[in-house]
Amino acid sequence: MHMEYRYGLMTVQWDDKDKSLVLIDQRRLPNRLEYIRCKSHEQVADCIKSMAVRGAPAIGVAAAFGLALAAINSKAKDKESFMHEIDAAFKLLRATRPTAINLFWALERIMSKARGADSIDKAREAMLSEAVAMLKEDLDVNRRLGDHGSLLLNDGDRVLTHCNAGALATVGYGTALGVIRAAKEKGKRISVIATETRPVMQGARLTAFELKHDGIDVSIAPDTSVALLMARGMIDKVIVGADRVLRDGHVFNKIGTYQVAILAKEHNIPFYVAAPLSSFDLKSKVEDVIIEERAYDEVVKIARRRIAPKGIRVFNPAFDVTPPTLITAIITEKGVLEPPYEQSIASVFNL
Questions:
Q1: Rounded CA gap, 243 and 268, in Å?
Q2: Which residues are listed under the site Transition state stabilizer (predicted)?
Q3: CA separation (Å) from 30 to 202, 211, 216, 323?
Q4: How far apart are CA 15 and CA 283, in angstroms?
Q5: Which of 59, 191, 298, 314 fits a 20 to 30 Å CA distance from 2?
Q6: Cis previous bond, 30, omega within 30
Q7: CA 15, CA 19: separation in Å to the nearest integer?
Q8: pTM as predicted
Q9: 210 is in which domain, residue-wise?
Q10: At which of 142, 169, 197 does a domain end?
Q11: 243 is catalytic
């Protein structure tokens, strides 16, 4: 099951023969499993912006290939003109989503390969090679993260997760759901409660889809039911992903994560964040991070059908921030980080 999922249903794939990026169109799930083939950086940017591909690690790797496609498609005759085109593609891809740090990390990593090459052909080769390396790296990082996190789960645990931090949010294994997969691979019986995750329903559409695909016991619960489920003793642990982790332990993740963390604290339930080191932002302060505001229609419509009166105001932030005081531990590929986070994060980055 693990091998089938990891190499069969992969979110981000590179077709070297066709020189194209192949993405699962997550807007169509769970009813249809469809793929999008991107042959230009503009197509990749559109997929990121429209959330055809989403989840911080998957966005990062997709953007890396977007920049590589810009290099492959460039008709520039000299390095200066080439870098001008690549810089324009970099800016377009960078502007697609403002909160997930993996996007910026991945683009900078590819840009450094472009800058360091002494010819256009060498730049193309180095940029594509680095993007392919990042795809393979993501699978490996998530496996190691999952192995570390699986030690925190006991046989029979009932785990709540919010949004989708699974294979569909990464290249193909998952962060929060990677922990659950790894625990299952070790023979532990784990059942999952996935919140719907309004307004785009990533929990109901994506998390439930991939866990059911993997034969993992999953139930869906409305976002508004979390307090009652905890009060009834139906949840043993909470595991979520992260779009950005600051050096002091503040975590930016899908809107609703903060209130789940508050409720977990109130009910003495461990609250874990699973995040690769590529999701850490060691420079920004909380007030520096832009919280993305998304489209009006995501809130007032479900499946294109209007559910709210016309002319109404809407708040639709895509993310919130959970303070470190509410987080039991942060699971990374280099181990489990515990409070005080300023120290444990500094230690893992050798600061």
A1: 25
A2: 163
A3: 10, 12, 16, 33
A4: 35
A5: 59
A6: yes
A7: 6
A8: 0.90
A9: 149-348
A10: 142
A11: yes
Q: How far is the C-alpha of 245 from the C-alpha of 324, rounded, in Å?
A: 10
Burial string for 246-267 (b: 16+ CB within 10 Å, else e) reads bbebbbbbbbbbbbbbbbbeeb
| 316 shares a domain with 170 | yes
Coil, helix or strand at residue 307: coil
What residues form the annotated binding site?
54-56, 97, 202, 253-254
Last residue of a domain, one of 93, 112, 142: 142
Q: Are 190 and 184 in contact (CB under 8 A)?
A: yes
Residues 115, 20: one domain? Answer: yes
Question: How many distinct structural domains can be found in the chain?
Answer: 2
- The single residue of 138, 157, 214, 243 carrying the catalytic annotation is 243
Residues at the binding site for substrate are 54-56, 97, 202, 253-254
Measuring CA to CA, how many Å separate 32 from each of 29, 53, 67, 209, 272?
5, 15, 28, 11, 31
Q: Tell me, yes or no, whether 81 and 169 share the same domain.
A: no
CATH number of the structural domain spanning residue 19: 1.20.120.420
How far, in Å, CA of 44 to CA of 12, rounded? 11
Q: Do 113 and 253 reside in the same domain of the chain?
A: no
Is residue 188 within 8 A of residue 158, CB to CB? The reply is no
CA dist 330 and 185 (Å) reads 21
What is the pLDDT at residue 190? 97
